[in-house]
């Protein structure tokens, strides 16, 4: 190739010096053949005819055939040499130019004179080469600038990370280390590098890290990170894989926002962990635990001895009255002093332990779901989430390990294959209960579990340690099952501290109560047929449901925007068996209705429409008696969509608003909040379709017992009583 052309003073490429345009050989050859063959044909014809040769025609034909063949082969050879071979060579040179470098200000050159008739193509390749060289120079300059900026930012980040007193590690969802600082190496007591791309779980115990990531993933998936006190961060306690170093950690999720305009939630693409060496702190805490345990439990034996001496004195008649009285007074004073000291030290011990252990507010549903996940589907026993959710305060990781361990030991002791996990609020505690059908665990066995070390727990924590961190204890007791004639069950109860800042405590109610809605044709039902109507209320299978809508008038265009339901079986609210979905109403949601349900147009934009949702909902409620508060309102919306969705809702329906009127009379507050308050039902997540379904379910179960006192025992009894209320309301409105 020729050398690059020189450039002008402005830096742009000067026109290359090129030879005069080469002669076009192939066009000339075709013209010559086109003119020569006719001339040859005419000349030969004249010449052969003048010779009077009898074979002149044959000679003429042979001569012209030979001439044409020679012309074709000559033209083909010329095309092959001057076009085909040259074009192949030109393509190879163009490929070399495409893969070459562009250090100069112009691209590599192809000599035009070499390619004759293909010179215009070669010239175009040279022009493309110049543009390619310019593009490469621009790319190289941009890369250099970006690299410089990245290096500058990297240097700044490295300086920041180097000055941090906490170890920092950035990982992807496969737990591969993408970035770390020197402090992390020092905290983990590692010499050399961690190694980018290596798994964090090679150096740190996996369980706490995986558990914390599961918590954050669940929080983001449900959208709770937006209003959560800690956003996308969570604390945990971990350890190095060799167990020599205990770590206090904090995980922050790295979020990737959805595409612009999408209503999808962000996704977690990785996480940042900050670590500090808590070995000395937790070791000191462990030593303090042991010391205080000795100080507290060590008092028990002396006190027992003192009381034994007192009993002995009572059994010794030979002592005089005055001696006996003085002896007894001194011993009693010592005993009381020891007892008071024991109480003070115990309270101080629990306060110190609880205040030193990292804890946070936890939603009970999330906690129990993590326990169920730990138990796993391969276990020989099942765990069912029941009851109403509550907020508790604690260390979720140690609680998950604790309850997984307790269920396993109860199963090993009793062989019962099914357990309910539920929470129940108290005056100053929230009780987390493991309930089963079978004998309770003797108190001596429960007490013996306190010293058992928990598998996968950090620092060799025992059952008693975890309970003491939460100022808690545990006991097993028999309890009566749901209903007046409920069977005798057993439960293992663990009190937990209530949440310090539950969301419901600082979130105002969105809107007022929905107005009472009467549609007498919907509310007045025929009695159930066959065995269903005669079935006692506490033996029926129920689905409690609620809807949220764009407004209060389905006949004028208002639509369903959310349906939620929960299953109730055997007097138990099966919190783990729910139906909950948003619905695209195919119309805008009025701004004035948003304060009532908190659902916006963006939230339902990509959700299924009602004709897709109702068949799924019908499948969920199949075979169940429906329960709702102010049921006529929800039924009106469902009935108007039956034809469009191709399903029918013909199950019996009980309305807690009508049942409230049956039990309490027409006076009083028959709103859901009013009834729940009178019944002492404390719940979270109100003013959502699922939250309202859970409240209604709890209200209905309380009403079943009250209805029995009114001799309303079967489904037919309840429908008959509700029909009377409907007729009375219709007459009142008629007047």
UniProtKB/TrEMBL annotation:
A molecular function (GO) held by this record is: 3'-5' exonuclease activity
- Which segments constitute the HAMP domain? 81-137
InterPro entries from the UniProt entry? DnaQ (IPR006054), HAMP_dom (IPR003660), PAS (IPR000014), PAS-like_dom_sf (IPR035965), Ribonucl_H (IPR013520), RNaseH-like_sf (IPR012337), RNaseH_sf (IPR036397)
GO BP term, pick one: signal transduction
Q: Which GO terms describe its cellular component?
A: cytosol; membrane
Enzyme Commission number(s) from the entry:
2.7.7.7
Q: Which UniProt keywords apply?
A: Membrane, Transmembrane, Transmembrane helix
Q: What class of enzyme is it?
A: transferase
Transmembrane regions: 28-50, 56-79
Q: Which reaction equations make up its catalytic activity? A: DNA(n) + a 2'-deoxyribonucleoside 5'-triphosphate = DNA(n+1) + diphosphate
Q: How does it assemble?
A: DNA polymerase III contains a core (composed of alpha, epsilon and theta chains) that associates with a tau subunit. This core dimerizes to form the POLIII' complex. PolIII' associates with the gamma complex (composed of gamma, delta, delta', psi and chi chains) and with the beta chain to form the complete DNA polymerase III complex.
Q: What does this protein do?
A: DNA polymerase III is a complex, multichain enzyme responsible for most of the replicative synthesis in bacteria. The epsilon subunit contain the editing function and is a proofreading 3'-5' exonuclease.
Q: Which NCBIfam families match?
A: dnaq
Write down what this protein is called: DNA-directed DNA polymerase
The species is Azospirillum baldaniorum
